[in-house]
Amino acid sequence: MNTGGMQKDRGAGFPPSFLWGVAVASYQVEGGNLWSDWWEWERTPGHIKDASRNTIGCDFWNRYPYYLDLAKKIGLNAFRLSIEWGRVNPEKDRWSDEALTRYREIILACRERGMEPVVTLWHFTLPQWVSHEGGWTNPETVDWFLAYVDKTVEALGDNVRFWITLNEPTIVLSLGYKTGVWPPGRKKNIVGFRQARKNQIFCHRETFSRIKKKTPETQVGIAVNITYNEPYRPWFPPDRALVFLANIQGDYAFLKRMQSHLDFIGLNYYFHSRLAFVFQPDTSFYVVKNENKIVSDFGWEVYPAGIAKVSWDLWQRFRKPIYITENGVADANMNDKLRSDFIRQHLLYLSRSIAQGVDVRGYFYWSLMDNFEWAEGFPYRSGLYAMDYEKQIAVPRQSSVETYRRIIAEHRISHGNLK
Question: Is the pLDDT of residue 9 over 60?
Fold first, then answer.
């Protein structure tokens, strides 16, 4: 794909039906999810770098109208949220009608504000009782998950046109079964990794089939985290081989196994890696050599061109409509310049990708407000709105909010919103 000259393309537009949204995840914003495995995990010393406000967080569960009003002020026509399995199914044989009623209220509140709810069924967390039974490595988890899907879709499905089955499955498997920094905390457990992966793939396929059988017009997809990989030395065959191997593993491999059970692909884009081969058999056979001219507070390189490269690659491989279900940057700097530039540049590259024929149908910035960032806790700030956790208010980061609002209103990247 030719992405040269994108900086000069200042008149790129988006399709009339394009979804403009933000994304949140239940455990990260709701507060009080004491039925989830992460509730136990983060209370074990050493698991979370900063858990000083982990009980209430953003309190989205009780204050969702406040946050949805903030989203509407930006001009959004879509809102991505997730359902917390542990809230809906807190014990093995107990279901919470109260939780399902609240999720229904949230979904209807999105619709009342003119925002299409895009609903994720699983965003990283498990009910504690499922975790205690072996989590994703237990074949019975498939049945338990599908029972949860049936119950949730039956209660909410008449108001949901877009379902995402799983969010970034490979991330959870890698951090949970290889490095052990996320639940269940296993290291180099390849057998567990493969069994969990097998069960997740089956869950996705069966969830897709069940929803489509009930409501064929409903769109069902998955959200994957794809890195834009390129060889550090394009002329060096081992570097090129590393990129080839990286691009047939991870979430690409998931998608290949699920291709016949997808209406769309949700792309979460955050990472760029220039891979260089090194001979270190005791550790790794590669190193990442990014230029890192601009990095987020996480230390991740900001590389806008990658969103076009990856969306083009996904389209060429799978020919499925694409929604950018997450794309954002952690930046606590009060001048907010990095985030504003991040949004403009990523959408500029994305618009050019669309102009060249890639079927991208929506963009969801991560996230509406600052929130709980898993093993990192609360210090990292990715929100369009800055959270004051003590006062429980969200303050707009004016530059990035206005940038995103203007792009949405104009429905294009123009000279005005590139300034």
Answer: no
Chain segment 75-120, per-residue pLDDT in tens:
999 999 999 999 999 999 999 999 999 999 999 999 999 999 999 9
Exposure letters 333-362 (e unless 16+ CB within 10 A, then b) = eeebebbbbbbbbbbbbbbbbbeeebbbbb
- What are the φ/ψ torsions at residue 288 (nearest 5 degrees)? -95, 125
Q: How far apart are CA 328 and CA 323, in angstroms?
A: 14
Residue/partner pairs of 290-298 with CB below 8 Å, 24 or more apart: 294/338, 296/329, 296/330, 296/331, 296/338, 297/330, 297/331, 297/332, 297/380, 297/381, 298/330, 298/376, 298/380
* Cβ proximity of 266 and 221 under 8 Å: yes
- Helix axis angle, 305-318 relative to 337-355, nearest 10°? 30
Residue 54 burial (CB count, 10 A): 18
- Please check whether residue 77 is in contact with residue 361, taking contact to mean a CB–CB distance below 8 angstroms: no
- The letter for the amino acid at 267 is L
Percentages helix, strand, coil for the chain, rounded to the nearest 5?
45, 20, 35
Could you identify the residue written with the tokens 């206005």?
402
CA 99, 102, 106, 107 dihedral sign is positive
**Percentage of the chain exceeding pLDDT 70:** 95
pLDDT tens digits, residue range 192-247? Answer: 999 999 999 999 999 999 999 999 999 999 999 999 999 999 999 999 999 999 99
Tokens of 207: 């969830």
Query: Are 22 and 58 in contact, with CB atoms under 8 Å apart?
Result: no
Q: Which tens digit of pLDDT belongs to each residue from 266-312?
A: 999 999 999 999 988 777 889 999 999 999 999 999 999 999 999 99
Give the whole-angstrom CA distance, residue 372 versus residue 38: 11
pTM listed for this prediction: 0.96
How far is residue 352's CA from residue 410's CA, in Å, rounded to a whole number? 16
With b for 16 or more beta-carbon neighbours within 10 A and e for fewer, the 265-302 pattern comes to bbbbbbbbbbbbbeeeeeeeebebebeeeebbbeebbb
Q: Is 363 within 8 Å of 18 (Cβ atoms)?
A: yes
Number of other residues whose CB lies within 10 A of the CB of residue 21:
27
Residue located via tokens 């949860």: 148
Going from N- to C-terminal start, the domains of the chain cover: 6-228+264-270+299-418
CATH architecture designation of domain 6-228+264-270+299-418: Alpha-Beta Barrel (3.20)
